[in-house]
Task: structure prediction
Amino acid sequence: GVKFGTKSNFPKKYQQALYAMDWTYGRLFAVHLREDGASYTGDYEVFVKGKPLNLTDMEFGKDGAMYFITGGRGTQAGLYRVSFVGDKTLRRKLDAVPKPDKSEAEARELRKKLEAFHGKTDSRAVEFAWPYLRSTDRFIRYAARIAIESQPVATWKERALGESDTQGGLTALLALARCGAQETQHDLLMALRKFPLQTLHEMQQLEKLRVIQVSYARQGHPDKEIANLTIEKFGAMFPMKYDRVNRELAQILIYLEAPGIAGKCLNLVAKAPTIEEQTQYIYYLRTLKSGWSLAERRQYFAWFTQLRKQENLDAKHPAQLLQWFREADRDYADGASYNKFLINIRNDAIASLSSEEKSGLKLLIEERIGAPAWKAAKERKFVKEWTVADLESRLSEVKSGRNFDSGKAAFNDAQCIVCHRMGNSGGSVGPELASASSKYTLRDILDSTIEPSKVVSEQFLTHNFVKKDGESVSGRIVDDNAERIVVMSNPMSAETLEEVRKKDIASQTPSKLSPMPTGLLNNLTAEEILDLLAYIESAAKSEAANFKH
Result:
């Protein structure tokens, strides 16, 4: 699903573009790369978009046009041709691309020379690469560092500890943190003191903190002298000017169990402009065992239950993230795993509590968190055993004049919401449906609802296991490793899991049946089914054309 346009007869801007297909949201992107030192940067635009546009592959033909096909999973296939039909004036404008920069070509050549030392011992590598540890180009610095890391540590350790240039020293000490033995840690962390945090610019501050984090991760907890020095210096500075720096500082101070760090982080949570930034600090604090007051613990656990009560959540997300959703014609949604992450974070935090704290926080830690529960399905009488043929001729009626509230109620009462997410509501055992109209026609959606086993996605395939003792287990595989397989045995509940040891399995066969039962629409009228299809096609947007009269 990714190709350069070099074989096309498009104008140069698009001939040099990298094309990438987005099957989920029915988009074909053109990525425009541009030189950036020893590497590249770029931006993208939506080149082709459709509803549905379930892209499966593309190629450039001998005529210079782009060809792409759609289809998959039993849907109607299609072949499309894209060619440039603009006039000469437009072609000249799009042909006017920047000429290659000689200095950037030289930077890429230097990067390749440095990369030639990667993964191999070479006596020339350290001398050749060392000056480039201080390069202003981070891709050159990276290539130089890996070249040095590929050499025996004894040949460059002292040089790294003695490096006085700020950028070169930070890069060299990162190499030592990654490759040096535990006994080098004290000298390494002391050498970092040559570069006081408050004297560095933002990126260098992040680089210094990264060296410390890598050292802790690979070389272990620092000795008491270093730990106390770090707590004293960084504790007095925290929080600093930059959000990104504060996030890294917080992780170090929490790891060292610095006094007062819980309260400082909770203050940052209270001031954070986005849910994402709040969640970062909540995540970091989950393992902190000491230094909490009971009031701070209450504030921490209250965050989980208050999160869903905040009004205007869209205003609490980064602008670029909301822009991404707008470009995909979607309202913001957290994603199927978000609530599970919140539960796991809180469970880790509960595990760090003392028995006294658990007693004092009993009501808070037992309160349910996560997505709001949906309404219980309304009991309905049997209407008809519907077939696709019964409704196919009326699909054009879905495009306008439908009833939003009726469609929403049908989505709930037909139990679609139990397994499928729509925005921030619904289960996660089946496909997310807000993007359904980007991949499927109305007939496809109707077909898969009435005859769910006609085409079963490999992502949601059920497997039947027969164990050597004769016991049978069926479900969707959610984890598979060398020793065991974990299956979701209840298609209506993502939490119902069973573990099967591989050595106990006599046979394993994929099921031809969908975990989605048939007959879910049989208690709905024809009008309600059409309203339901409109609700799905519109991604639950009441302002969509489907509901205009």
